[in-house]
Amino acid sequence: MTDAGGDAITYVHAPEQHRYEVRDGEDVVGFAQYRLPDDEHVDFVHTEVDDAYGGRGLAGAVVEFALADVRDRGRRVIAHCPYVARWLTKHPEYDDIADPAR
């Protein structure tokens, strides 16, 4: 994805920050924050995208990127973040790795 300025929107895992990031060039413009409650789960706690980038589907794209990575790593998802929880209800293809938030 490319913005009006020509920079590419990219999605990266930043494990040292416990989040998956949306970047516009070098700038972080959104993220899906998580915690690691145990050796099996990735618990998503907050997702946000800068207002200037709203309405472009970036939050959904970073969540999809994150969940694909979680699956590839053989882990499971917990969604305490309301956005991630709603996203999961619309994407049953991730039911196999989703556990309820407690």
Describe the structure.
By secondary structure, the chain is of the alpha/beta class. It has one domain (9-99): Gcn5-related N-acetyltransferase (GNAT) (Aminopeptidase, 3-Layer(aba) Sandwich). Helices cover 24% and strands 35% of the residues. The chain contains 2 helices and 6 strands. It has helices spanning 58-72, 82-90; strands at residues 9-14, 19-24, 27-35, 41-49, 76-79, 98-99. A 6-stranded mixed sheet has the order 1-2-3-4-5-6. Strand 2 and strand 3 form a beta hairpin. The longest helix is centred in the middle third of the chain and has 15 residues, at 58-72. The protein is globular and about 35 Å long.
Sequence-ordered SSE layout with sheet pairings:
Layout lengths: L8 E6 L4 E6 L2 E9 L5 E9 L8 H15 L3 E4 L2 H9 L7 E2 L3
Parallel strand pairs: 4-5, 5-6
Antiparallel strand pairs: 1-2, 2-3, 3-4
